[in-house]
Write a structure and sequence with these properties.
The structure is a single chain. Helix 2 crosses helix 9 and helix 8 crosses helix 9. The chain has helices spanning 17-25, 30-37, 52-61, 65-68, 96-102, 141-144, 163-187, 199-213, 220-238, 263-269, 294-301, 304-312, 315-318, 322-328, 372-388, 405-408, 472-479; strands at residues 6-12, 40-45, 74-76, 83-85, 107-110, 123-125, 136-137, 192-197, 244-249, 253-256, 259-262, 334-336, 349-352, 355-358, 401-404, 420-423, 427-430, 433-435, 443-446, 448-454, 462-463, 467-468. By secondary structure, the chain is α/β, with parallel strands linked by helices. Strands 1, 2, 5, 6, 7, 8, 9, 20, 21 and 22 form a ten-stranded mixed β-sheet that branches. It has a four-stranded antiparallel β-sheet with strand order 13-14-16-15. A two-stranded antiparallel sheet has the order 3-4. Helices cover 33% and strands 18% of the residues. It folds into two domains: 2-255 and 445-496, Alkaline Phosphatase, subunit A; 259-441, no CATH class. It is built from 17 helices and 22 strands. Bound molecules: zinc ion. Zinc ion (ZN) binds next to loops. Zinc ion is lined by residues 13-14, 52, 201, 251-252.
Length: 501
């Protein structure tokens, strides 16, 4: 019977314990409460950067980005400012679900980011980063399960619209996703089942600040999203087949932020980066602690809602980067909000959100850094300077992490990744892109998400020490009694599992 162990993983994108516990205490999540109390749980450290695409890829491979090669939603190609979206073909090691497939275990994946194009002959409903209109594989499922005709990958993504409409659309999308997943779960054979609810991340980009800081009663319409998803989760938990364990997890957490750090602006001010436009007004957005421009400083210090409107006053700086945006707008959860227009022939560095790339000869067609010493020197210089930067109050440092990526990642793909990696738990790091629906308050992903395990092989009511997203794949293998793969960097979360004698 050992061989017939099954696992289901339910993803709640971007949730952390701070928010989930507040909602549990408010009585809004009876099912998650029950699963948590009858299972084992911990916080779950994610990838650097804490971004959906590399995080779910680390889940799917049990490996760090230095091995699987996915560091962001997009990756630079020939030139420093030429970015292409990643796909499942960008994953350089075998995922755990491909390994399961190879030994005859049936997998069903619903809404796993970076699963397009599908690598399984079995059922895959792809996610963000799907190209084209087909996301149901095999396509004939649409005839069997008519709810798929209503299935959508993401909200329409209009930047300016009423919150009510946004919430309504998210609830609709997740309800349809649940109905489809429910039918697959009941009617199709599987050994491993995955479904991700993305709506939590989508709404948190707008409402995390309010959910954390305000009385929950003021946010009932937003909480409806969480209550819906809690009831879906409850259905799966109540309908677990025999010998099946359930894992609930998020790919990263969320933070309520104090402000924005415009990294490319800072790199330009320090003369590492040149813009093409000669008449570009220079505003010290980057070096926020010493901003000369009074209005910019006021906007940053006062109320960040002022900053958004301030930005629109300078269209030459903040106009859409059409070239990149057109390529990725349909498949990513983000919009491009700044046209940097960089002069790659005269720039040694460029940043993409939390990642900094150095313009090395041999790597990029217009590379200008041509020897190892110069490369190391510039890298160290930038790390040293960014480490010291303080926020507008001149007290706390802007960045929690400023690191040489070779010290963060390990594996063959490190050389294709960024050169420097940044993380801030207090400031949104903006370069050319930002999360959709940001207006006024700033809230963004953080490092610690959630993990809950529940089922016949799981210890009950037990808080575990922190685990890592790369530990999930090894845990799935352990629960299914499958020998650990040598691709995994992580380890099974044995502390949660009842050892049979
Ligand atoms: Zn996410």
């Amino acid at each position: 019977m050992n061989n017939s162990k099954k696992v289901i993983v339910i993803g709640l994108d971007g949730v952390n314990w701070q928010l989930i516990n507040k909602l549990i205490d408010g009585g809004f999540l009876p099912n998650i409460k029950k699963i948590k109390e009858n299972g084992s749980f911990s916080s779950l450290r994610t990838t650097l950067p804490p971004v959906t695409a590399p995080a779910w890829t680390s889940f799917a491979t049990g490996a760090n980005p230095g091995q699987h090669g996915c560091f962001e939603f997009v990756t630079p190609e020939n030139d420093l400012d030429d970015y292409a979206p990643i796909s499942s073909n960008s994953i350089k090691v075998k995922t755990f679900y491909e390994q399961l497939d190879e030994i005859g275990k049936k997998c069903i994946l619903v809404n796993l980011p970076v699963s397009f194009p599908p690598k399984l002959s079995e059922i895959v409903i792809t996610s963000l980063l799907t190209r084209g209109d087909d996301f149901v594989f095999p396509k004939k499922l649409i005839d069997e399960i008519p709810e798929f005709t209503k299935y959508k990958l993401a909200p329409e993504g209009k930047k300016e619209r009423k919150l009510k409409e946004h919430i309504h659309e998210i609830r609709d999308i997740e309800q349809t996703r649940f109905k489809c997943a429910q039918k697959l779960f009941k009617n199709k054979p599987w050994d491993f089942f995955f479904v991700l609810f993305s709506g939590t991340d989508w709404i948190q980009h707008t409402k995390y600040h309010d959910l954390i800081n305000q009385d929950l009663k003021k946010n009932q319409s937003v909480i409806n999203i969480y209550q819906d998803i809690d009831s879906y989760l409850g259905w799966f938990a109540d309908n677990l087949p025999a010998n099946t364990n359930l894992l609930v997890m998020s790919d990263h957490g969320f933070s309520d932020l104090k402000g924005v750090f415009f990294l490319n602006e800072w790199l330009a001010k320090e003369n590492y980066l040149q813009f093409k436009s000669k008449n570009k007004k220079h505003i010290d957005f980057g070096k926020i602690s010493e901003s000369r421009d009074k209005s910019a400083k006021k906007a940053l210090n006062l109320n960040l809602s002022g900053l958004t409107s301030f930005m629109w006053k300078y269209p030459t700086i903040f106009k859409f980067a059409k070239k990149i945006y057109d390529k990725i707008k349909k498949i990513l959860p983000i919009y491009v909000d700044q046209d940097i227009g960089i002069d790659t022939l005269n720039s040694s560095v460029y940043s993409l959100s939390n990642l900094i790339y150095l313009n090395r000869k041999g790597r990029f067609s217009n590379g200008i850094i041509d020897n190892d010493n110069e490369y190391k020197k510039i890298k160290q210089e930038i790390i040293d300077k960014l480490t010291k930067i303080k926020g507008p109050d001149n007290k706390d440092r802007v960045f929690d992490v400023v690191a040489d990526s070779q010290k963060i990642y390990s594996g063959r793909q490190v050389r294709n990744g960024p050169d420097i990696i940044l993380y801030s738990s207090k400031y949104l790091i903006k370069s050319i892109m930002g999360p959709a629906f940001v207006k006024g308050k700033f809230q963004y992903h953080s490092l610690d998400g959630i993990f809950i395990s529940y089922g016949p092989d799981i210890k009950t009511n037990m808080e575990l020490k922190q685990n890592n997203i790369i530990d999930i794949a090894p845990t799935i293998f352990k629960l299914m009694n499958i020998e650990q793969s040598n691709i995994f960097d992580g380890h099974p979360i044995s502390e949660a599992i009842i050892e049979k004698v």
